[in-house]
Write a structure and sequence with these properties.
Elements: H1 2-46, H2 50-60, H3 65-75
Helix pairs in contact: 2-3
């Protein structure tokens, strides 16, 4: 009778440890999804529009006001 209790107890300890692996798996999945979303979000925000680039070139003096206005008209 005691051996049966011992077997049940040891199985419970081993079986109980598997929930930790499942928990770790789901935590890693959630972290992976969060990093993917962050990467995709920053990719969209990080790109400069053509108009922003044009404004920076004008501000640095690389193009004249006439060139700026002409290219701005083309973009819009």
């Amino acid at each position: 009778m005691q051996f049966g209790m011992m077997d049940d107890y040891s199985y419970g300890m081993m079986g109980g440890g598997y929930w930790i692996l499942g928990l770790i798996f789901w935590v890693l999945v959630i972290i992976g999804l969060a990093l993917l979303i962050k990467y995709l979000w920053e990719g969209k925000r990080g790109e400069e529009s053509a108009l922003e680039i044009l404004k920076k070139k004008y501000a640095r003096g690389e193009i004249s006001k006439e060139e700026f206005e002409e290219k701005k008209k083309d973009l819009l």
